[in-house]
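Please go through the sequence and fold tokens given here and tell me how the chain folds. Record follows.
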Amino acid sequence: MNTINTITEKQVVMKQDQIEKQARFPYRFFVVTFVWSWLVWLPLVLASIGILPIGKDLLSALTVPAIIVAAFGPAAGTFYCLKTLHGKGAIRQYLRGLLDFRLGCLALAETYA
């Protein structure tokens, strides 16, 4: 009987830990997204106002690639939060579900009905 109580106590502690992780999820997502994007954009901003000595040609050549890389800030935040919340295989499972384009007959019938 003591073993059963110990198992349930462990399960309760694990559940509370999961709830605490989920409560911190939005904050972690926004912090990682913000940091990712601004770490990429900050050198461009500093160079455009003259604080960093980067030539105009190099600055104009780096602007579009930097904007593209910084646009993936929300994806970086998502991947970070998925890994910390659900473990190592969560990102693969998320991408597999995101890129799964198989539709059943019922889904197609509902789409065109």
